[in-house]
Amino acid sequence: MLCIHLVLTLYTVHFFPPRHHELNQNRSLNLSRDLEASAMAGEDELTLLGFWGSPFVLRARLALSFKGLSYQYVEEDLKNKSELLLKSNPVHNKVPVLIHDGKPVCESSVILQYIDEVFAGTGPSLLPADPYEHAIARFWAAYIDDKYVPPPVDPYGRAMARFWAAYIDDKLLSSFMMMSMGNTEEERAEGRKQAFAAAEILEEALKECSKGRPFFGGDSVGYVDIVLGGFVPWVHLIDRSTGSKQFDAGKTPLLAAWLEHFGSLDAAKAVVPDLERLVAISKMRKA
Questions:
Q1: What is residue 25's three-state secondary structure?
Q2: How many domains does the chain have?
């Protein structure tokens, strides 16, 4: 179970493709001054403060990737947080933080919605325009975190997207944590039970939202897909660690197909951590 604990407790290891500028901790003060200067000059710059092992940071990177937006990436040492992070998120002192024109935006769900609204004319929309579908998407995103953490343009679609996003946050993350950090085998077994139950509910959500298409967002990736997509590498790692499938093709065929489709997208492959690297690091920590 150590490899699961390793990921969920977010040990500091560096990984991400070189196509973004990765800035060292000791450059954060200079970066802060540069960001302030850019904001004063009216430059449209994006900087993401993150940690490689965070599914919430991965969500922000996925959204930026699918939108086709360029940005600077700053890897944070969570044991020695930079002045830039502490200044940008003084309430929670945590990643991710997106800095746009010198102004910080905190919390992954807020960042996703901010990106979608501010850059509405760039790349695909993440949230449907219909208020009801919009709300549903947010609900299911929250559900995923708690139990485990071009789309429609009508208000119903936007409501639905937020509904399911909330479900992900509310249900999925908690079951993953119980599976990995339970004090007894009984607690860990209960975590597995809750994870499978959450997957079955998400299977029905995917059926409802996708209407026979590959993604929660329909033919293209949407808000709920990105919220759930933040967990993709860790779903694979937990599968390998436990010898069981979180999204089993026999029990949840739509989710199993979704996992394969999402992982095959170039925009996802560009930012999702490599599974073998995660496995190697978990073995190293165990030794």
A1: helix
A2: 2
